[in-house]
Prior knowledge:
Bound molecules: 1,3,4-trihydroxy-5-OXO-cyclohexanecarboxylic acid
Number of strands: 5
Low-confidence stretches: none
CATH superfamily: Dehydroquinase, class II
Number of helices: 5
Helix content: 25-40%
CATH architecture: 3-Layer(aba) Sandwich
CATH topology: Rossmann fold
Strand order of the largest sheet: 2-1-3-4-5
Strand content: 15-25%
Structural class: alpha/beta
Radius of gyration: 14 Å
Amino acid sequence: xxxxxxxxxxxxxxxxxxxxxxxxxxxxxxxxxxxxxxxxxxxxxxxxxxxxxxxxxxxxxxxxxxxxxxxxxxxxxxxxxxxxxxxxxxxxxxxxxxxxxxxxxxxxxxxxxxxxxxxxxxxxxxxxxxxxxxxxxxxxxxxxxx
Length: 146
Ligand code: DQA
């Protein structure tokens, strides 16, 4: 099973940005956690981070040609307004899970709207970095149910 985990803008700044919201652990810690979980689950995981909308869309389109089995995405701020990323996600028929480190529904008004969640199968929020690991477990179930 081949999984792709995409992280959007500023997530490479984990451990630097707004620590009271996103915590002290940095992006490399997250990558280590994902790698460890992938070993436990015995799956292949590729990670991708970009601060650019177009790069994220290009990576999503590549996932189609690569025949990726499932996509986990934290579109970061693009969650709230990128119809282009939403359309790219909607083009893909494999299971998709949206992850947020924070509880976006309990923060500023603009964060309460996710334009990307309706084209994903699940949304996991407010579990910190562990949310990615929860999404990986959930994805294995979604893919085996398919
Ligand atoms: C985030 C929430 C977004 O509102 C924010 O723009 C982010 C991170 C989260 O993981 O909690 O960059 O997606």
